[in-house]
Specification:
Largest sheet: none
Number of helices: 2
Radius of gyration: 40 Å
Helix content: over 70%
Order of helices and strands: HH
Strand content: under 5%
């Protein structure tokens, strides 16, 4: 009977040890999973924020350039009109228009 009790105690101890080990492993796995999930979430959030910021800057820059282009075009047209060389439909007048720029 003593031997059976010893064996039962050994088995009980082995089961406790196995359960502790399994629990530790499960906790490690859960912690790793949650850390990976949190990092992925943070990276995704940062990427989306950076992309929105970059798009806004690009749009503002493009609008500024377009405004500048339209202003330059208007000034060019005004300049050409002030330096009129008669009818605008001749090759010579076209060349003269570009020469006054």
């Amino acid at each position: 009977m003593d031997h059976a009790m010893d064996h039962a105690m050994d088995c009980d101890h082995a089961i406790d040890h196995a359960m502790d080990h399994a629990m530790d492993h499960a906790m490690d796995h859960a912690i790793n999973h949650s850390i990976i999930h949190a990092i992925n979430h943070a990276i995704n959030h940062a990427i989306i924020h950076a992309m929105k910021h970059a798009m806004k800057q690009a749009r503002n820059h493009a609008m500024k350039l377009e405004k500048r282009r339209l202003k330059a075009e208007a000034q060019h047209d005004k300049h050409i009109a002030s330096k009129s060389h008669g009818p605008k439909n001749t090759l010579l007048n076209g060349l003269l228009d570009w020469s006054v720029c």
